[in-house]
Amino acid sequence: MTTHDAPSAASGPLVLADISGYSSFLRSVADEHRNDAFADGAVPDGYRVISSLLDGIVSHFVPPFTLSKLEGDAVFAYATDPEELPRGQAMFDRVRECYAAFRQRVETAQSKWQCWCEACAKIDELDLKFVLHAGPFVIQPIAGRPELAGSEVVVAHRLLKSRAGDLLDRSGFMLVTDAASDWFDLPAGGGVPLVETLEGCAPLGARAFGFA
User: What is the pTM assigned to this prediction?
Assistant: First the structure.
C-alpha cells in the first residue's frame, strides 16, 4: 500500500498480545540504572529482554497474520484471508504455544541475567495476555504505511482492560469474543463465560481461558 492508495474495507480477526507489567518493569530498570549503564551509554539487559519477548510473540503469529504494529508492550496483528489461518483447536494451540514460548524466554533470561537488583528481578512479574476479536475494519494509508481503523479495532484494544484476569485470578490469559469464536470455528464450551460492557457498545459476549 502506498500513500496514493485509498482506504479499503476489510473484515477478519484481530489479535492483540500484551505484556503485563511491561511499563513498571522498564520504569524500574531505568530508575535503578540511570547513574550507571545509562550514564555510560550502555543499555540495561532489561531492554534487550523485552525486544526478545516481542520478537518471539511476532514469530508465532506472522505469518499467517499480518503485523499491524508494535504498540509499546503489545503486538497487534490482523488477517483478511481466512484460508490461510489456523482454525478450531489449532488456533487455541497456537496461542498456548506462544504463551509457553514467552514463559520459556523469561526463564532463559533469568539464567543469563547479569544483574539481580530489585528492579531487574521484576522480570519475574511479566506475563502475557491475549485478546482475540473479529469484525469489519478499514485499512488506510497514513505516513506511507497501512493503519487499521474502525469501531471493532477500538473494541479489541479496550478489551485489554477486561475483567477476565480478575475472574481467572491470573495476569496471563486469553480472552476470546463470540465474534472471534465464530470466525475461527473454535470449539464450543470451556473457559469462563463473561459479558463485557464497553461504553457506547452493545454487551459483548466472550470466554476467558487461563494458562496452566
Answer: 0.92
